[in-house]
């Protein structure tokens, strides 16, 4: 009588252990999403949060795809031109959409020699993200795209921070 119960338990165990283990964010890292990346950028006329499906598409001055860049909301510390002080504040993308990112950067001093240092965290509709300091490299420049948040023809946009899926390793440093 116990034998059928043991067989069923073994079948359930093997079926459950055959699936990939989720990352700490609860979203499995797959070939399709492992290179997703968010950037917190300061542009000539203000700050933006930009999403790229593949971090490779953000390494040579490419603008984010149409509809994947957002003005920031929340936080404080507006600087000249509308840029924000990212540190010690929480921000979120506007307008809300399924990819809406809520992000908090720790109370820290931004220093160029701290590139790739852990700096904060974020969440969106697909899970949790770990944020790191970038190098202030030019992420995109005049004109690259038009999306739901308006025209990107607002001058150079420099990468202040980037966020990767929690559990994904760091990519090579781009200066």
Shape: globular
Estimate the strand proportion.
25-35%
Structural class by sheet pairing and helices: mainly beta
Rg over C-alpha atoms, rounded to the nearest angstrom: 20 Å
> What series of H and E elements makes up the topology?
HEEEEEEEEEEE
How many E strands? 11
Q: Average the pLDDT over all residues and give the rounded result.
A: 74
Number of helices: 1
Distance between the termini: 67 Å
Overview of the molecule:
By secondary structure, this protein is mainly beta. The chain has one domain. 9% of the residues lie in helices and 34% in strands. The protein is built from one helix and eleven strands. The longest helix is centred in the N-terminal third of the chain and has 16 residues. The N terminus is likely disordered. Keywords: Signal.
